[in-house]
From TrEMBL:
Family: Belongs to the class I-like SAM-binding methyltransferase superfamily. TrmB family.
Chain residues that bind S-adenosyl-L-methionine: G42, E65, L66, N98, S99, L118, T196, E197, E198
GO cellular component, one term: tRNA methyltransferase complex
Keyword vocabulary terms for this entry: Methyltransferase, Nucleus, RNA-binding, S-adenosyl-L-methionine, Transferase, tRNA processing, tRNA-binding
Keyword Aminoacyl-tRNA synthetase: no
Species: Durio zibethinus (Durian)
Lineage of the organism: Eukaryota, Viridiplantae, Streptophyta, Embryophyta, Tracheophyta
Name of the protein described by the UniProt record: tRNA (guanine-N(7)-)-methyltransferase
One Pfam family per UniProt: Methyltransf_4
Length: 221
């Protein structure tokens, strides 16, 4: 349960020296201008983060994952890559947490530029929809943590969930869909279906995918 993992009191309590030791050698000399900008929610085995790490070497990124063993696997995967590729993969980390509860403990207002929700658990039954990681209520939290212009990327192989995520985003006042030409120009969009372990499984089985990519907009004045 939640009592088994520590939760930072606030975003300023997140220990960057623990996550990015080469970039933040000591916890009391934190360069507060440099903050985590990408978060992969329910990162699973970490495939997306590993790809993003070298694509955006200057950007700090983190995965949030509920399962303890999976989180430990990702930690070891990252340390292995750091050892094998000196100077690389220093910008990527993972934390075991429940993203549905603790996003505000990790990220302050407008801190994030990208949030990823790749192949989240579908929670089919109506009464379980409140467990979905995209919901009208959680989108309020994500809109708070995202900077204006920041992007939410979602993908699933479950058509019903794809429609749900899209309609939640479509109906939220703080998000607008990216245009087709913007999706084509964004190097990250290709990774949605190819970079994660779940995406690769779906592709191997020839499954269809449904994506929704939305931008955080400024409030109407
Ligand atoms: N995104 C990965 C991929 O595409 O391979 C993993 C997809 S897997 C189907 C969904 C993941 O979300 C699981 O690893 C699960 O443990 C994690 N998860 C579910 N609820 C979560 C929560 N509330 N907070 C953090 N992670 C969660």
């Amino acid at each position: 349960s939640d009592s088994h993992f520590p939760v930072p009191l606030s975003p300023s309590h997140v220990d960057y020296s623990l996550h990015y030791p080469q970039l933040f050698p000591s916890s009391d000399q934190i360069d507060s201008s440099r903050k985590i900008q990408f978060v992969d929610i329910g990162c699973g085995f970490g495939g997306l983060l590993i790809s993003l790490s070298t694509l955006f070497p200057e950007t700090l990124m983190i995965g949030m994952e509920l399962r303890d063993k999976v989180t430990e696997y990702v930690k070891e995967r990252i340390s292995g890559l750091r050892v094998a590729n000196p100077g690389q993969y220093q910008n990527v980390s993972v934390v075991r947490t429940n993203s549905m509860k603790y996003i505000p403990n990790y990220f302050e207002k407008g801190q994030l530029s990208k949030m990823f929700f790749l192949f989240p658990d579908p929670h089919f039954k109506e009464k379980n929809h409140r467990r979905r990681v995209i919901s009208p209520h959680l989108l309020d939290e994500y809109a708070y943590a995202l900077q204006v212009g920041g992007i939410i990327y979602t993908i699933t192989d479950v058509e019903e969930l794809g429609e749900w995520m899209k309609s939640c985003l479509e109906n939220h006042p703080m998000f607008e869909a990216l245009l087709e030409k913007e999706l084509e120009a964004d190097p990250v969009v290709n990774l949605l279906s190819t970079a994660t372990e779940e995406g690769q499984k779906v592709a191997r089985n020839g499954g269809q995918t449904f994506q929704a990519v939305y931008r955080r907009i400024a409030p109407a004045s």
